[in-house]
Amino acid sequence: MVPSKGGELVVRTLEKLGVDVIFGIPGIHNLDIYDSLANSSIRHVGARHEQGSGFMALGYARMSGKPGVALTITGPGLTNIITAMGQAFHDSVPMLVISSQIETSALNYRSGYLHELRNSTILASSVAKESRIIRSHQDISNSIMQAYNLVTSGRPGPVHLEIPLDILGEPSPIVESDFQYPLTSALPCKDEIKRAAKLITSTSSPIIIVGGGSRKASEEVTGLSELLKAPVVQTCAGKGVMDEEHPLCLGSRLHFPSVQQLIEQSDLVIAVGTEFSPTDFWKRSLKIRGSLMVINEDPSSFFNQHSADMGIKGDAGIILRSILDLFQGTEIAKEDSADIVRTVIEESRAMIGQVTGIGKELPGLLRTVAALRENIASKGVLWADMTTLAYLGISEFPVSSPGLFEHPVGFGTLGAALPAAIGSLMAEPEKEVCVLAGDGGFQFTLPELAVAAELQHSLPILIWNDKGYGEIRRNQNSRKSPRNMAVDHRSLDYLSLGKCYGIHAVAISSLDELSEALGEAWKRNSPMLIEMIAEEVIKIVP
């Protein structure tokens, strides 16, 4: 039997798991893995910063439904990628991060070893379902198999594995594991489904709240809504689970008082795949006066923000399908909510300024969001960073299915949009993908423009230039801070920046120009930078 180095076992195991793309940066401490990747069928996408590679893995996972895999070194490599892991952990995105580690003999000492990081698994465990060190060559294959399974089982999320240098480079005749972990979800208990059906039929005004855990259950959510004639309201992560043009869909408007009031008045709230995150309610306190049924892979959600009257653990699609099958051929006498939905949406739109705190700029901003919706294909993907237009887009950028509006609302990471969009193109290159970022947040991961330039794929990158951190500036003004601190930036020369990276760049000052620029961008086989000069696009009067 020919001895294999640990690095080779890592790559061979990932190949067996069906991994087709890995995102990362080579370093002195992980070259044993990269040597084996050189002869692998797995495609490697080299980021310019470890944070970027993490967000690329996140974007890939969002689009493909498969775990995104990232490679890094210990020390600064791991600390850099932890931000992206935090976003994946908050948003329940499946991600496997494999890092190197210093030699086993030097672990947990302050020895001054290059890239030394003491207790790194403790650090990573704060943003991972599990963080584990592989301590022997024999454990490499099984540990990766277990980690890959853990990433997707139950509530998805990131898992971190680290492998010391001596184990990565150590030859051994160990054969890799052939075991394949089952990834199917168990069927729900029939008695639970009957109890759920009984609770549903005993109420008169149900409402359904759907989150990211229901992204694969669009058909079932829509079916239950139509069966019960019940409104559906979506979290940001659940945006598009139900077509937002459907007459029973309230869209992603949990942060509006009129929607929260409707929830409070309902005698049954059916929460599917959501943890009632305060970020979706914009810190407002939601009161649930009726019964609460929670359907979730993670049973902690049964008692997270609200105590459930009934909790069903499992896959949202399977559970909802079982409930629908129980009612097959049965008519449930419920009052149609379409008129109520229409009224509540109108009320929420009238309160956008009050809810967001946006003043005189609001009409121009809303026109801009509408123009984006008009110029991005109905099945195109908008990766929206943490920026003013994105906050408005949560409710005012309607989509017809999940994954068409992606926004890091939970962990709230600036700079996520560009690398995540690159990752999503690795998963589905035929998709039309667009990036929207503020000029402040864009600079967090600006170097990943180099990776985008290498793609040879159309990718409009919209920069909303409001000369700094516009949202923070607005908050400083609203709280009457003594003066604006560190929010006003000198603008970059984006046209020259585009030239630096070898991509076309334009600056626009009207919505007509936006339409033109996006039309041109979709025709190119390369990214295109589009600077939107905020004060001119929305005609702000000083």
Beta fraction:
15-25%
User: Which shape, going by the Cα principal axes?
Assistant: globular
Low-pLDDT stretches are none
Query: Do you know the CATH topology of the largest domain?
Result: Rossmann fold
Quaternary structure of the protein: single chain
Number of helices, where a helix is a run of at least 4 consecutive DSSP H or I residues: 22
Cα-atom radius of gyration: 24 Å
Q: Provide mean pLDDT, rounded.
A: 92
The figure for the number of domains is: 3
* Structural class estimated from helices and strands: alpha/beta
Under the CATH scheme, the architecture of the largest domain is 3-Layer(aba) Sandwich
What can be said about the biggest beta sheet? 6 strands, parallel
Total beta strand runs:
18
CATH superfamily of the largest domain: Thiamin diphosphate (ThDP)-binding fold, Pyr/PP domains
Distance between the termini: 76 Å
CATH hierarchy, class of the largest domain: Alpha Beta
Helicity range of the residues? 25-40%
Q: List the strand order in the largest sheet.
A: 2-1-3-4-6-5
Description:
- The model has no long low-confidence stretch (mean pLDDT 92).
- The chain has a six-stranded parallel β-sheet, with helices on both faces. It has a six-stranded parallel β-sheet with strand order 9-8-7-10-11-12, with helices on both faces. The chain has a six-stranded parallel β-sheet with strand order 14-13-15-16-18-17, with helices on both faces.
- It has helices at residues 6-16, 31-37, 50-64, 76-91, 120-125, 140-152, 165-168, 190-201, 218-228, 257-265, 316-326, 338-350, 352-356, 362-375, 388-396, 417-427, 439-442, 449-455, 470-478, 494-501, 511-523, 534-537, and strands at residues 21-24, 43-46, 68-72, 95-101, 130-133, 158-164, 206-210, 232-234, 249-251, 268-272, 291-296, 310-313, 381-384, 405-406, 433-438, 459-465, 504-508, 527-533.
- By secondary structure, it is α/β, with parallel strands linked by helices.
- The chain folds into three domains: 6-168, 3-Layer(aba) Sandwich (Rossmann fold); 190-347, TPP-binding domain (Rossmann fold), CATH 3.40.50; 351-537, 3-Layer(aba) Sandwich (Rossmann fold).
- It contains 22 helices and 18 strands.
